[in-house]
Amino acid sequence: MKKLVLFICSGNTCRSPMAKGLFIKQLEERSPELKDKIEVITAGTYPNPGDTASPGAREVMEEIGIDISDHRARPVTEEMLEAADLILTMTGAHRDYLTRIYGQNDKIHSLHEFLGQDGDVLDPYGGDTDTYRACRDELRQLLEMLVDKLENELL
What we know:
Layout: E1 3-9, H1 15-30, H2 32-35, E2 38-44, H3 55-62, H4 78-83, E3 86-89, H5 92-102, E4 108-110, H6 111-114, H7 129-154
Parallel strand pairs: 1-2, 1-3, 3-4
Helix pairs in contact: 1-7, 3-7
């Protein structure tokens, strides 16, 4: 049975769709066996449902060969949280919001926290291309660490 990983940010148009695309690419390139065991979805705490990934997010992901143009924003739901095996938020504030609204849950972590680090993945929304690239590159580094951690736990 596949493990469900849920990435959550605010609007579900920048960080979480970039994280999903990067994570899937990492799995395909580094751990096909693990990829077969994981399903990935995204959501936002305050999205405009149906919005596409932001132009900046699409542009910097296309630079590295990842197409997120078919992404559509959606709100996080209680059903998603229940179904997910691992819920990774982009910030501690997202984590705190989810636990305040839906109750304490040992599946909910900020991405940095889950990897034993301090910090948040800052929102690039409205920033220039370099801001989006910096976010993408930070996420890429974190998701490489996530693949390593999950390989040790799931394989």
